[in-house]
Ras-related protein Rab6-like Protein (Tribolium castaneum), 210 residues
Amino acid sequence: MTKFSISQDYNPSLQKYKLVFLGEQSVGKTSIITKFMYDSFDTAYQATVGIDFLSKTMYLTDKTVRLQLWDTAGQERFRSLIPAYIRDSSVAVVVFDVTNIETFHQTTKWINDVRMERGDSVIVFLVGNKVDLKDLRQVSIEEGEQKAKELNVTFVETSAKVGLNIKQLFKRITESLVVCEEPKSDNSSELQEVSLGKNGLVTIDNSCAC
């Protein structure tokens, strides 16, 4: 598995990957990105208008990767903009709110939209956010795992508020991208099925979708 490190002297070629964040309004797409980028959380909700863009460079032991993060609006009036941003994406991160079961049901539609635009040439992550709100939970980790198996995607639970699994989510995304770029061989490294129910970090599939 590729290890992460920061080196002042190492300056490999920079690979850029587009990540598009999808899901219903107020599920926490912007909060996940903000926590990852700035380690901050805004308790005052502000809906994303249209599309927002940020980027962050990840330093690995053998290469440098720039993640281009596209944050899409969940409101219906902006839906017509989204297919254009899906078309050239490397990763689709479909987010739902574990305290709102309707947002969970809608993830099937979002993932189908991704595959309609990109086929199987995109990595898909299903992310259940707001797991810190335990008493309000409507979607269990088992239900998330089951849907991920059915749709052949990777499942992760997060809390943007407390930072649970935020760094791990982007680490898994980066590792998945690197694995997809590596030449296939009989002894090549693959993502193996891992279930860590206590902290919500769950990987369902064991191969990249590229």
